[in-house]
Amino acid sequence: MTGRAHPGTIVFVDESTGKEDSKPVAQVPESVAFALVDGRRESVVRVVARLGNGTRTLTSYGADGRVLSTLVQRVDGKS
Amino acid sequence: MAMVRPTRGAAPSEPETPQPEGLERPAAQGPHEVRVRGPFDEAAYEGVAAGPRLVDAARARLELLAAPHRLVRPFVAYTLRDLSSLPALAGGPDPLTASRLGVADAQAWVAATPGYAELSSADRQRFLAVMGGEANPRSLRARAALSAVPFVASAADLRLALSDKKSMPSVISVDESLPEQHALVKLTGPTYVERHAFYGATLPADVYTLEVDGRSVPVFAPHPDAQGGWMGKDPARSNLSPAQVADLVGRLPAANRALLQSVTINPVRNPDDVYWGETYGMPNFESDMACGSDGKVLLFALSVVRDPGEAADSLAHETGHVWSGRLWIDPQRKAEWEAAVASDGLVVSAYAKSSLGEDAAETVALYSMVRGTLREAEYRAMFPARFGILDQAFAAP
User: Fold this and answer.
1) What is the pLDDT of residues B55-105, one digit of tens each?
2) Any A CB within 8 A of B315 CB
3) H or E segment at B167?
4) B292 and A35 in contact by Cβ < 8 A?
5) Cβ count near A31 (within 10 Å)
6) pTM of the entire predicted model
7) ipTM (interface pTM)
8) CB distance B292–A79 less than 8 Å?
């Protein structure tokens, strides 16, 4: 695993409301601020939340705009 | 069939045309008002309430077929231009039971709108493709959604109808799913590992190997204790077994499986759920699965029983992200997908609209689900450019 300095802020976008919120990386869990890709620690600079079919999908993007990881969450009521 | 009854006109002078049941034939010349007994949707016929309109019978029949019949209206009055097509009006499917338009009627409906003539040939082709499917749910949705299109739709109305969320699924897995099985996957192992770093807990693990397509994919599972649970297990949570993961992976087409690098059956919930719960004001929601752009899949322990088929459908979508993430390192390949989206002019699902990456993931999921089915050709007619790109990457021999 290689460590990399984070640019400093992460923009969280909620597509269902259009709200954007920028947070200092110090206020975000490390597991959210970085993604492990092929054993490398990549900085996450943008997280976009999208709702669909009882789920919320969080897509984490790197500084170059690439998708680093996706996290599927169950919204209440999904079984 | 609704009864068509003339309300004005003289006795017929040339009774050469057989009369549909329930009709009285008026004079053959000049406009004639007919009443079609309902019930019909009040809102759909709001414009008719002021008086009969001058339409031809084929048009009237289409309106009757397309209208939803939620509210009762005793009759709809039309003034037919002539009576030559009156049998067609009386002879169609019963509008009380025909809740959805057939292909020919839907295409005729669109072609009869004033806006159709103003559409580009590409947009016309898109309408024909979307309305023309017999087997796929998307075409059924699109035809049903026509009831909301104005009878006098402009070209702008029709373009809006093409992209209307009501005419498509919210996500593709609502309409389609992967077949039961694509391949047999052999599960070997396990190898015991005393300390394995799961996501949120370091515990003893069993490492299995999925052997499929000449490849080996590791599966990390919590080591079971004598009670069948595992160390630190939350009794309210469960996860798939290694055998169920093998089944899940076997449902994926070969090209999607090739993108998977490992699967982890996580013994605990995602520790980040607390953070996400606070962020979105929903403390009870939970992470289901995560997929990295490196193809490593993480299945979190859930408070509900995970359905392997549903999980496989999600994985079909996630492997689309893995594929596009790797391919689009080359900007030219990303530009090719953008061009394909513009050329097709239709989206797979409402969710696919949210970004280019989601468009790729949803289209990959659809392609994986319908490849080799009767529905494939219908979807291919809707998304020819994107399916063409996926043919290069995902069409297994």
Assistant:
1) 555 555 555 555 443 333 334 444 444 444 444 443 333 332 233 567 877
2) no
3) none
4) yes
5) 15
6) 0.74
7) 0.81
8) no
